[in-house]
Amino acid sequence: MNFLSHFYFDRYSTDSYHVTGTVLPDLLKNADKTINIHPEKLTAHPNAQVNSILQGWKKHLEVDRYFHSSEFFAYHSHQLKLVLKPAMVGSVVKPFFLGHVALELVLDNLLITVSHLNVDHFYQHLEDTDTETLRSFLNYSGMNDTERFFKFFVDFKRHRYLHTYAEAGQIAYALKRICMRIWQDPFTPLQEATMTDVLLEYRTLLSGCFMQIFDEIAEHLS
């Protein structure tokens, strides 16, 4: 799941450290895909705020584990792969990867536009997370060089690009940006335009049933 889908399960939380922990694995992956830490294997930290980040991290892993093994994910990521594949002829992007990421982006869009998830509340939690406490968590996890991550984190908070997910027409652009972390020039302008049409149509299909997976995960977590 993507940032806002993880935030959905803690949208009423007042613990910013926990909320930041629930999206930290993806923040690290976006900052530097070579970062590989496993704090979930560690014992509880004596500092309450550091430990809140750790509990949020563990929740992220549990949510992703359930989501990626669900029938909902298997079915809709496969269907998206099939409907996107004709538009991707000649592209270096793997169809399975495309279906997987496209589904997560569409879900984030639907949370904002249909369920009215407040994106500003998400960013406020990140702003309220003390930098040195977050650094302590990363150091505790075995990550000593944190400079690259914090440079990304500052930019992530400043640009607030998740607001663009509210625009359904921007889903294909967001998908392209994610693919560009792996492949240079993944899509032609024509492919991107075709993807936009396909994703808008699939978004409409999902709009009436997408909460099913969030309800399932919420029940699993309870």
Concise synopsis of the structure shown:
This is Acyl carrier protein phosphodiesterase. The protein is mainly α and 222 residues long.
Give me the Rg, rounded. 18 Å
Output the number of helix runs: 11
- Mean of pLDDT: 94
Main pleated sheet:
none
Beginning-to-end CA distance, first to last residue: 18 Å
Task: Please trace the helix and strand order, writing H or E for each element.
Answer: HHHHHHHHHHH
Overall 3D shape: globular
Q: Estimate what percentage of residues fall within beta strands.
A: under 5%
Model regions low in confidence, pLDDT < 50 over at least 5 residues: none
Q: Tell me the helix content.
A: 55-70%
> What would you call the structural class?
mainly alpha
When the domains are counted, the total is 1
Q: How many beta strands in the DSSP annotation?
A: 0
Organism: Mucilaginibacter paludis DSM 18603
Protein name: Acyl carrier protein phosphodiesterase
